[in-house]
């Protein structure tokens, strides 16, 4: 079994991400080695529980880690105040103490929710991420951002709370739907587009192997975690550079909001794929990036089966003015000015702080399917 | 106007506590000087709003600080998930950004709730404490502990989130009921009992002046804040020494739980007063502290009109076994062993980590009114 280890260096909050096949079955021993004597509450969703909860329970029991499971409905709606309260109550009902752990077994929804709960029960418990979606393995489980949604927007409520350990079982991805795998792949491509042009070129050549599994998959996930860990180590609390990770997300979140977070129409990674294509197009409209690079990005995303245009979203979208309002409500708004991640080409993204909303509006109108 | 300033030294989270009469009327200028350009959401309760909201709004407006007010029902029940969601939604509806501030205008309930909300909206906004009860001025507004209650116990859910500024208007205490003033005084006495025997002796001589107002009141509050700030600076995240501040609180919380947090029967500070008297009695039972010291403590607390015995609580209490169960559920339980703050005498409190529950039970039985 070949496991890659990626450290996330954050002073006394430093922790390891282990990546490889079979880590769910090995979770008990990996956890008990680092957190001797710990007890745990596993937070998961119905889909993931069906495929992976029993092996995890068996592994924990084998290592002598007492645990209870809290299973929630799958889907973005679970990132709510109500579900948060359910998890908090469940953890307290299990009489866990500060030194005990919450284990998130699932995708980004479960990771964000369980991480938030672990950050507020007794003002902060231990936390272990066991991401089971590609998106969670390469993105949401790394970096300590946790949270839930509000009627006012996505991820508006939460805390920074770092895990003690991340166990990314690449084999768990075999039960993930193709659509969700592709959605997670958008975030993998994102790291290439931000500042790793060679990685992006490697992805263009090797994406089929990554989808099939095996060493290319582990390598792509590890490289993604390294990329994210680097940015997070530079800017743990998102006061600067970390905003680069939002490449594609300003447009993406607006589209998620505009489709009412209806995963039938759009899942997060699909919104990000369209958002990244739009960010490159918008950059080229502003004469920052060549149209060739924008088209190259679209071509690769489309090749793996990701949407790249607003017209790819089934159903009607609100008009450009309404979309702009969604963007303005997004949390990456600073004192009224629009902050965007723009780019000078593949692997050359940068933070642009004063993008005029008139330019954004004109661009949205040009690219609107109506 | 004589304002005392007490710094809370926490590295880059260092902030000032200003203490004195007239600070509500001066809040706008004090806030704008430190947080230029800030907008604010004021969180308060019905009692406090009636007496102090208009002057605060006028002061903020005069200083050019835009604000909205969120007014909640008074009382411990407001430290709930529901009220938390109300505050979070209100702050988001006001479209405040990360750099804007939540202002807590009220007692410890409002401070704990608003502080928690400010710690989780956008993963952490700015926060200003304007404590209006004596308890809040000397205790809850200092040190960054925020939170709400759960059906499983008090303060079990929350975050550490430091304010940028604390404005303690000693004049605001004139509208506080005598009973609430006395309850807050229990925490003032606590600092003397922990490690300031001279302060305790000064309180024995000067408590009447403190109750009347004027310089002795400001001095007592400032000395209390200095005492708390010192402990907090040593142990911001309560992994050690900070537990000393729980003198009287293990018994106190159990009694609050046992009376269903019914403020008609017992308010927090009254629970603490009884708890401190019990902690000294228990210490003397364990031959740690003289009975003389235990009686001296009871005498002073009773002199100011505070309860000191379980029998002073109106209505029936659960039996000793049930009380012990409340203690065991309290969050200061580490791996099953009971942690208590015990004492060798006035001003000589210490953390005792392995107190046998059999001793506690026997003591509770002896002191139980039934
Ligand atoms: N915290 C962060 O830094 C961060 C970063 C990016 C995204 N996010 C958040 O992550 C969320 C999206 O994550 P996601 O795409 O993983 O969503 P998700 O958790 O909803 O998972 C997607 C779907 O796949 C299912 N699933 C997950 N793993 C599976 C497996 N191994 N087998 C079968 N089914 C499986 C889930 O049940 C769900 O139906 C969003 O809420 C987003 O805001 C957070
Ligand atoms: N965060 C901490 O470190 C910390 C420390 C100690 C206590 N606490 C918490 O503080 C809470 C108790 O605080 P409290 O005693 O201030 O309770 P509180 O906020 O309920 O205030 C007590 C009563 O006094 C009223 N009141 C407050 N100021 C007034 C004024 N100036 N004029 C008229 N009425 C006024 C309130 O409306 C309320 O009815 C508890 O929830 C406790 O857990 C927190
Ligand atoms: Zn994303
Ligand atoms: Zn107290």
TrEMBL record, chains A, B:
Binds 1 divalent metal cation per subunit. Can use either Co(2+) or Zn(2+). Keywords: Amino-acid biosynthesis, Aromatic amino acid biosynthesis, Cobalt, Cytoplasm, Lyase, Metal-binding, NAD, Nucleotide-binding, Zinc. GO terms for molecular function: 3-dehydroquinate synthase activity. Residues 70-182 form the 3-dehydroquinate synthase N-terminal domain. The keyword DNA repair does not apply. Its cofactor is NAD(+); Co(2+); Zn(2+). The keyword S-adenosyl-L-methionine does not apply. Pathway: Metabolic intermediate biosynthesis; chorismate biosynthesis; chorismate from D-erythrose 4-phosphate and phosphoenolpyruvate: step 2/7. It catalyses: 7-phospho-2-dehydro-3-deoxy-D-arabino-heptonate = 3-dehydroquinate + phosphate. It is found in: Cytoplasm. Its EC number is 4.2.3.4. NAD(+) binds at residues 108-112, 132-133, 145, 154. Belongs to the sugar phosphate cyclases superfamily. Dehydroquinate synthase family. Catalyzes the conversion of 3-deoxy-D-arabino-heptulosonate 7-phosphate (DAHP) to dehydroquinate (DHQ). This is 3-dehydroquinate synthase. It comes from Mesorhizobium marinum. The lineage of its organism: Bacteria, Pseudomonadati, Pseudomonadota, Alphaproteobacteria, Hyphomicrobiales.
């Amino acid at each position: 079994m070949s496991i890659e280890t990626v450290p996330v260096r954050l002073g006394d909050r430093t922790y390891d991400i282990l990546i490889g096949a079979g880590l769910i079955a090995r979770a008990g021993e990996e956890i008990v080695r680092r957190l001797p004597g710990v007890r745990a509450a596993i937070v998961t969703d119905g889909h993931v529980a069906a495929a992976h909860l029993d092996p995890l329970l068996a592994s924990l029991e084998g290592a002598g880690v007492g645990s209870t499971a809290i299973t929630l409905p799958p889907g973005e709606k679970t990132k709510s105040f109500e579900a948060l309260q359910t998890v908090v109550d469940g953890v307290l009902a299990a009489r866990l103490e500060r030194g005990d752990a919450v284990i998130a077994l699932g995708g980004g929804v479960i990771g964000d929710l369980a991480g938030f709960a672990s950050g507020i029960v007794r003002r902060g418990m231990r936390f272990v991420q066991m991401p089971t979606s590609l998106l969670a393995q390469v993105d949401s489980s790394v970096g300590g951002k946790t949270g839930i949604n509000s009627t006012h927007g996505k991820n508006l409520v939460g805390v920074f709370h770092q895990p003690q350990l991340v166990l990314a079982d690449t084999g768990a991805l075999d039960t993930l739907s193709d659509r969700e795998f592709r959605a997670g792949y958008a975030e993998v491509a994102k790291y290439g587009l931000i500042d790793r042009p060679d990685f992006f070129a490697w992805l263009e050549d090797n994406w089929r192997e990554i989808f099939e599994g095996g060493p290319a998959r582990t390598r792509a996930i590890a490289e993604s975690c390294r990329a994210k860990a680097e940015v997070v180590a530079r800017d743990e609390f998102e006061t600067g550079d970390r905003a680069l990770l939002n490449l594609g997300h300003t447009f993406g979140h607006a589209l998620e909001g505009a489709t009412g977070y209806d995963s039938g129409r759009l899942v997060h990674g699909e919104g990000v794929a369209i958002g990244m294509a739009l960010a490159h197009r918008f950059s080229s409209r502003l004469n920052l990036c060549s149209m060739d690079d924008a088209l190259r990005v679209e071509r690769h995303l489309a090749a793996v089966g990701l949407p790249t245009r607003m017209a790819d979203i089934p159903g009607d979208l609100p008009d450009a003015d309404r979309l702009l309002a969604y963007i303005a409500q997004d949390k990456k708004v600073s004192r009224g000015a629009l902050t965007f991640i723009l780019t000078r080409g593949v692997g050359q993204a940068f933070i642009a702080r004063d993008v005029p909303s008139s330019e954004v509006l004109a661009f949205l109108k040009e690219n609107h399917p109506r």
